[in-house]
User: Fold this.
Amino acid sequence: MHAFRSHTCSELNKAHVGDTVRLSGWVHRVRDHGGILFIDLRDHYGVTQVLADPDSPVFSEVEKVRSEWCIRIDGTVKARDESLVNPKIPTGEVEVFVRDIEILGAADELPLMVFGDQEYPEETRLRYRFLDLRREKLQENMKLRSDVVASIRKRMWDLEFREFQTPIITASSPEGARDFLVPSRLHPGKFYALPQAPQQFKQLLMVSGFDKYFQIAPCFRDEDPRADRSPTDFYQLDLEMSFVEQQDVFDTIQPVIEGVFEEFGGGHTVDKVWPHISFRDSMLWYGTDKPDLRNPIKMQEVSEHFRGSGFAIFAKILEHEGTQIRAIPAKGGGSRKFCDRMNAFAQKEGLPGMGYIFWRDGADGMEAAGPLAKNIGPERTEAIRLQLGLGKGDAAFFLGGKPASFEGVAGRARVEIGNELGLTEQNRFAFAWVVDFPMYEADEETGKIDFSHNPFSMPQGGMETLEGDPLEVLGYQYDLACNGYELISGAIRNHKPEIMFKAFGLAGYGEDEVRKRFGGMVNAFQYGAPPHGGCAAGIDRIVMLLADEANIREVILFPMNQRAEDLMMSAPSDPTSDQLMELGLRVIPQD
Assistant:
């Protein structure tokens, strides 16, 4: 017999009754029923009930075991009484009478219990992540993650993509976040960078003639933590294709993502039609560039109904250039109580409140109520109602100013309204391509022009469009949104050196600087670069959605905490004097 097990803890059934078996695993829980000890023995595959009574030759040893001890038992498989069958587990028809036991690893007093659903502080869970990972939900999440990655790989291979590994130690590259720098011992005073993405290398692969590349790529970005973002590293499905346009990329990746969500979506419906929404429309309608289309609410601009109106606050706002008033329609929200709740929500978001109108029964039929209705009068109120397609029992909420100042709050209010009123569909994955991103943005204080997205994207219209207003230039850039999260980001690349120099020049990067920072790519593009494009899909976020988790740390094996610390491994840590000396570095104490 094998030294540790003849079967896993999920394999035994009635066909094994009478067999002598060997199992190894962890003591999930111990129960004493009138002098008979029952142990739920757990391994990666499942749970088997084992028992010992005073007739067992090792009863005294079994009495010593405690939760999470790692043990090996030998015993005889017995059928359970019909009344004691547990249909919830594969081994529920049998149990194993213990005849021998070996303690493989005793456990100290546990800082968190593996059995049960108790909640523990995040600090405890991350410090003892190896115990946390034994819990059933996390075991399932990590198995799901592995299966999703395997499925993605198979689907990419079936599409005749080749998987290549790109360098981890490389040069710094502007990707919209801070680099993690790595000091060079052989070149004192110089630094490598961990790649924010394999961006330049995958483009160089296209120049090298490989045509279809993919990789499950580790990426490193020194970012502030969020519930849907790791603060240090993450994994993405990275792909690139030659001789393609934007729609070719969409047509390639959609069946991969769609298939994964159908395979692992747990019965949720998966949208087959993925609409294309311009960045401008997405911000107008949803207040975000990653809209949740399960929520049917679309915001609308209603500025003209307030221009010169009796509502002085909005009328004065509209006297300034670049301002708007937008409405959030709320079907079914037509009560003062609901409007007050949404006002309280706006105040939590840092606003004085939100203007609102709601429609209800009146003396002469339907009437508009609320402070705004009284100030702007029935004619304007009725025009707003007709534009928004609302009726009795409905409401509308209003925000105003320069869109950049209120779009974020408006988007969150839209989500809150959809959830509060039960308008947002559950058990559905709703996808949308957000396209036509602006290439550039201007700093509000200095007016300085910089890239607003991936700097290596091809501008729509090529060189000609770069001769005009940079803020009007759109890129062949695109994101895929699903249920309010960004799952994919990508672009058709700028493969022509002259257009690249012009594009970077508008953002303040001279040709010499571009050649210095991106010399490898610029040099390659001078030797017959093909048109190419691609995208990257966030593995962690995909699994987070499929696992129905709200926090990305629930689908990452060993995540950092909110302060980008690994409590289990005590990272980051202080370097030794010898390490600093070898690298020619000195740490300046922080006050």
The two ends are 63 Å apart (CA to CA). The first helix runs from residue 59 to 62. The longest strand covers residues 20-33. The chain has 17 helices and 24 strands.
